[in-house]
Description:
Helices cover about 30% and strands about 20% of the residues. The protein is built from three helices and five strands. Bound molecules: adenosine monophosphate.
Amino acid sequence: MSDAAETLFERIVAGEIPSDVVFEDEVTFAFRDLNPQAAVHVLVVPKKRYRNVGELAAADPGLLAAVVATAKTVAELEGILESGYRVVFNTDADAGQTVFHVHAHVLGGEQLGFFGSHAP
Ligand code: AMP
């Protein structure tokens, strides 16, 4: 984990790195993923950094609830609340987490594929 990966989303929240902002409130920040994996792909972060969703849940469950509520707000703003959306928290190596500032991926705007790679 490089320093850049540790601080990237804090710098985006601070406006030091430009992003396509979708929504912001006192405790959360939502912006479009640079490398979208669906027609709608927005990241939601708590402004305060925790490494992953488990650490966030243990330290501040109210803030985790705020992140999930912002994911719903993003779905409303993007017009996908009725069609449906997926919320994903990649956690550590096997899930492919690359930025160690917890973030919810909000995905939708089209029929999403199945996920995971384990054959049944
Ligand atoms: P994860 O692999 O779950 O840690 O997700 C990190 C996500 O951050 C990836 O989907 C990247 O495309 C996205 N990302 C990396 N840098 C930026 C950036 N500067 N602006 C927006 N999204 C980014």
